[in-house]
Amino acid sequence: MASHIVGYPRMGPKRELKFALESFWDNKSSAEDLQKVAADLRSSIWQQMAAAGIKYIPSNTFSYYDQVLDATSMLGAVPPRYGWNGGEIGFDTYFSMARGNASVPAMEMTKWFDTNYHFIVPELGPDVNFSYASHKAVDEYKEAKALGVDTIPVLIGPVSYLLLSKPAKGVEKTFSLLSLLPKILPIYKEVIAELKAAGALWIQFDEPTLVLDLDSHQLQAFTAAYAELETTLSGLNVLIETYFADLTAEAYKTLTELKGVTAYGLDLVRGTQTIDLIKSNFPKGKYLFAGVVDGRNIWANDLASSLSTLQALEAVVGKDKLVVSTSCSLLHTAVDLVNETKLDDEIKSWLAFAAQKVVEVNALAKALAGQKDEAFFTANASAQASRKSSPRVTNEAVQKAAAALKGSDHRRATNVTARLDAQQKKLNLPVLPTTTIGSFPQTLELRRVRREYKANKISEDDYVKAIKEEIKKVVDLQEELDIDVLVHGEPERNDMVEYFGEQLSGFAFTVNGWVQSYGSRCVKPPIIYGDVSRPKPMTVFWSSTAQSMTKRPMKGMLTGPVTILNWSFVRNDQPRFETCYQIALAIKDEVEDLEKAGINVIQIDEAALREGLPLRKSEHAFYLKWAVHSFRITNCGVQDTTQIHTHMCYSNFNDIIHSIIDMDADVITIENSRSDEKLLSVFREGVKYGAGIGPGVYDIHSPRIPSTEEIADRINKMLAVLETNILWVNPDCGLKTRKYAEVKPALSNMVAAAKLLRTQLASAK
After folding, report:
1. What is the pLDDT of residues 689-748, one digit of tens each?
2. Are residues 312 and 459 in the same domain?
3. Cobalamin-independent methionine synthase MetE C-terminal/archaeal domain spans which residues (predicted)?
4. Is residue 715 part of a domain?
């Protein structure tokens, strides 16, 4: 019985790629140094999978930034502003598309389906001259083969590539991206021909958009694409991989009737209903790559349950046609549990990171083949039973409080217009008030202080003194820049979710459980294993300290319940909304303590509310109902004069704008600049928004410093569709990843632009 891995984490067990990328970007190392680190990581991954007994090992899942940008490079679809003149795409062009450069902005970045991973959105139009401009897929296949590992090269499928793209600036929004299929398929044919010539026996096309709500025209594009590729693919085994949700009956029919396709990879963790489709009609003689090991969470697989599922499928598909696989790429999990030295043995026994999931996949494949490792299965069953019965998982008081939430929608008593009037009387802010989103640059010195405090190398007094000094520096800088509503810069926090999780019960933490979010950005999601509560205040001391340093309003900074949920590894033994309500009650306690401490502006970030939206429209309403309700729970008890802000970043918000309004926040700051101000189109189309709103005026994920004129131009575009008295001026997101040398001039220009517009507005009266 064979085994397969859809994809594997790229950063390395100790984030080796992250540090190599950042060293290269800072001109501290060469391209050759970066390539060596990458080659060593690839070699290690391939050989690890081969040693574990995996038959179908992927290649070309490694990336210096993201796999969609790799496909853009392969197709030579470089926007003209980057000045690429043909030939093999090098690091300069590649990273300029991802991060921007001194003269041009980066391409749009958005969430990869409903995950916390991001991809660079291709910008396409009728005039793009596609050409085969990156041989990465073939090079990496050859590289693995030279190491003695025969891999399955993985490509983003042609239809998903186009469906994940957007019309370039200046191209009609109604332009059919699928009309470009005849232009990109010749390049796919070139790549396929080179892979065949290099000795590839299999090829994997990732077509995850098949799990979305697709119309007949979109489904027909899959049929047309693979019919066109059939001759070129002849002689290869072709795997079409889907993940993250069920397939509709129509999509399943389209998939299983594709020409020239040998195998279908299906997510049977998040796509449990797909099993019924397989049982009712699976094409004879085809392979099923059964994704029964969860690629998106860190819980150990219930091997007995998975084996039972596989045995039922084996009866349908045939013994020699069933391949055990992960549900999706393991990119979304931490790398290796072996590196976790501080997790206690009980919790550790409940977990499986990427390296352990590889072992689980192979163990299931061997068990199906009659070579069951009884000791491994027994230990797994024991861990499953331990997790179900452990007293640390359940807190009756928390469950009772969450159950009592039913029956109320937890809205503030006064409408937002009246609240804003009351808040303005108290805060006395100018027109177009300026603020930032929360974090300020995390310097090496600051990271050192936090690291040494955690390692007990400095005292708590020394730590508090150092953090207070950093807060004072940030406060003084904001006052010098004349920003209206200040933040304390979050110097005590390495990560916005991890910081809160460390102070809430029901959470566990890793030392090296890093997961890639985009580029070199890694996050370390907390693990929610039990009922959640707040033992004591979490941010009141730091927010009060910061407020004591200034007479200007100081924002209390919290992470909202939906974002904590969506950016954690969440327990899978109860519905997600139940866990979210528990977190909401904990944050509610914190909000009310901040208010009592004299904090008049409190920001409750819901950066990840949109990313948790189910991929199926039929499931949207239920998710949005409990997600929005969870946010309202956090602040339903504050006074009218306390201003509640929230923040959302990189996602498509237009389809949930009415739910955003229903959150009933006083002010929302929201990503806008990197997505070509897509957000503003909602207001152009007539959506009325009465609360305060701050669409981001510049992209903080690029080192580029926007000019005062450029920011003023963005603000003017906002004023064309939004009332002057509700508009705020702020960056897209927090400033943690930037350097002070970039932050100071950018914020200075932002404030100057706001003042310029205030003057113009005043003179126009």
Report:
1. 889 999 899 988 788 899 999 999 999 999 988 899 999 999 999 999 899 999 999 999
2. no
3. 432-755
4. yes
Residue 2 has which token pair? 């064979």
Strands 569-570 and 527-533 turn out to be parallel
> What's the structural domain count of the chain?
2
Same domain for 193 and 131: yes
- Helix pair 396-403, 576-596: axis angle to 10 deg: 90
Annotated binding site for 5-methyltetrahydropteroyltri-L-glutamate: 18, 116, 521-522, 567
Residue list, annotated binding site for Zn(2+): 647, 649, 658, 662, 671, 733
In a domain, 515, yes or no: no
Report residues of the chain scoring pLDDT below 70.
650-653, 674-679, 684, 686
Nearest to 6 by CA among 396, 292, 210, 272: 292
Residues 422, 466 share a domain:
yes
Give residue-wise pLDDT tens across range 488-535.
999 888 777 888 988 999 999 999 999 999 999 999 999 999 999 999
Mean pLDDT of the chain: 94
The pLDDT value given to residue 651? 56
Q: Let me know whether 240 and 359 are in one domain.
A: yes
Check residue 721 and give its pLDDT.
86
Cα dihedral 117, 49, 245, 273 in deg (nearest 10): -160
Q: Which of 118, 488, 629, 701 is catalytic?
A: 701
Q: Which amino acid appears at position 738 of this protein?
A: R
Which CATH number do you get for residue 330? 3.20.20.210
Please report whether residue 436 resides in a domain.
Answer: yes
CA gap 163, 70 in Å, rounded? 16
Structural domain range at position 13: 2-389
Residues 454 and 327 in one domain: no
701 catalytic? Reply is yes
